[in-house]
Structure formats: structure tokens, C-alpha cells
Amino acid sequence: MENKFAEEVMLTCSQELQDISVLLSHPSSTQPASDYIKKYAVIRASGSIESAFKRIIADKVEIGCHEQIKNFIHRKIRSASYNSKLGTIENLLVDFDTRWKAKFAEKISLENKIVLAESLSNLVTERNSFAHGGSSELSIDLTIKYFNDGFKVIKILDETVHHDFVDTEYVDTENADDKVV
Q1: Model's pTM, two decimal places?
Q2: Per-residue pLDDT reduced to its tens digit, 133-171
Q3: What ranges do the domains of the chain cover?
Q4: What is the DSSP string of the chain?
């Protein structure tokens, strides 16, 4: 990945989730503690994906900007709270460059888009469930699977914003659904 900060966030979280999985696999784990640890894992996974996607976009668009634009990006992206769902990422991309959204959609379509979207959505849903007084029953194995799918999305996002578009590569803004013309 070109954005080393985002990559480090994701790799650190990945290692931490693996450590949690090992911790929870020991029979000596008490039930209440393991429930808290599983909830922490969901928050950590979801938060790392959110942090990485915001950092990738903000770092890219800030290059060479005036201080006022940097302040705007700080308030509207870096300090803003976003659910790390596929649609949220796509909406933020199109706000900056329709070519980014089209290239991102093209790259995501080469993967299993439905699985990737569901994984991100499931992490957010689980996080929101217990953050708002509900419960979460997500296993550590599913948390890790969803996070790994999210990591794929983060890598695709990083490739997308660092793609070197050629002059002939543009998006028809009237029909900017998902195709590059």
C-alpha cells in the first residue's frame, strides 16, 4: 500500500485480532471477560477500517492544498465520524472525483462485492448494536473474517486514489454510475 499509516493501522489491528483469537481459544477464559474482549475486537476492527479509509482519502486530497482546504478536510473527513460501509466509502470518493468512484467500483467488482459489502455492514451493525444498548454475539472468527474483507477494501481504495489516470480515462458525469468511459 502507498499509504503507510493506513497500512500500519490495518496490520496492527490484524495482529491484535489474531492475539484475541488465541486468548479466547484458551478454556480458562471466563465468560464475561471473553464477551467484553469480543466486543472490543468488533470496535477495534470497525474503527481501524474507518481510520484507514479516512486517512487514505484525506492524505491524498490534501497534497499541495492551501491551509483553508486542509482545515476543511480535517473537519469534514479526518475528524468526522463515518460508518465504514462500502456505500459510505463510494459516496466520499465521488465527492472528490467521479473517476475514483468508477475505478473503485471496477476494482471491487473483480472481487466478491456482495461479500465485501456485507462484511463491512456486519461489523458496523454489530458495533452499533452494543454501542446503543443492545447485545453482540459476533464470534472472534467472524470478526476476523469481516476485518480481513475490510482490509481488501482498504487495499483497493489505496490503489484507487493512487491510480495514475491518463487524459483519455474519464467518467461520463451524467452516467457516472460505475463505468469508466
Answers
A1: 0.85
A2: 777 789 999 999 999 999 999 999 999 999 998 865 555
A3: 4-175
A4: ---HHHHHHHHHHHHHHHHHHHHHHSTT--HHHHHHHHHHHHHHHHHHHHHHHHHHHHHHHHTT--HHHHHHHIIIIISS-----HHHHHHHHHHH-HHHHHHHHHHHHTS-HHHHHHHHHHHHHHHHHHHTT------HHHHHHHHHHHHHHHHHHHHHHT----TT----GGG-SS---
